[in-house]
Amino acid sequence: MEPRPPRPRSPRPFDTSAPPASSGVGERLYPGPGDATQAVNPEAYSGGLAEGPLLPRQQRRQRGALRGVAATIVLLVLVAALGWLFRDAILGAINSPGPSPTSAPEVAGPATPTSEPALADLPNALATVTPTAVAATHTPRPASTTAPAPAGAAPTPAGDIPAQTQPLLAFLPTQAQVPAGLVLTSEAERSKAEVVDSLGGSDEAAQLLDGWGWSGNAFREFTADEANAAPGAMTYLNVSVHRFADAESAANALTFFSDQVIYGQGLLEVDAPTVGEAARLLVGAPVAVLYVQNGPILYRFGASSAGADSDPSQELVALAQSIVPGGG
Known about the structure:
By secondary structure, the protein is of the alpha+beta class. It has helices spanning 57-85, 87-95, 192-198, 203-211, 247-265, 313-323; strands at residues 183-189, 216-223, 234-243, 268-270, 278-284, 287-294, 297-305. Helix content is 26%, strand content 16%.
């Protein structure tokens, strides 16, 4: 058997040529050894400007949300600034009152002339309490059924005015009310320090006055010509009033004040007359002192008469009963 002749061999046993482009098989995704590579120039895009890499979708959404929040904040700031600049105009538009449908313009009628009120006796400037001025009004009053007060009579404190608001001098007698022959020589107020001195100047007296609510003192003095005075006639009269916080305080002060006179001047206490809410009569010829408490007011009547053995207490009691409201 004859041997098979040998098959001729290809001069390129390993063909490394690439398959045709249409086959789609064997395309190289990277250059092979010795192939020329094309350098990528990052500035070759957008006219030489570098373009950043594309961000992931989640980061793009976050950036978009941040931009929206920033835009909202800027808008709110602008609105607040505009509101602050035009706040006056806005408040004026809100608060401007409109015309009231029920209001009607007042029609000024002809002025009615009023009679000038008669000038009453003004309270003395030395009074502790100054009355408050009240506008005068013309109010018709019913005819009074009581007889008018005699000319020259002292104005008795009005019953409808509290004793705490009346001038202190309104409680004191006038020239027309004192016994004949006496003439008003002095009237004044005394301070708390002066009252304390008259009570001995002790700290106890000052503390008691404060505790009783002492608020003022006023007095009037009347004197007569002793050379021409009848025997037993009153030649000196002093009437003083003190104001306290209430009736109980004034009653306590009556006891304390009268005790000072008893111990200091040696006067004797006799039966108290019927005058005021409480009274205490002290005598020692030719002197008599009468203390009367009525409400928050404490009266002190002191008198002396001509003659060493004379006693002015009866005239003093009669004067107190005519002065103190509701007395005698």
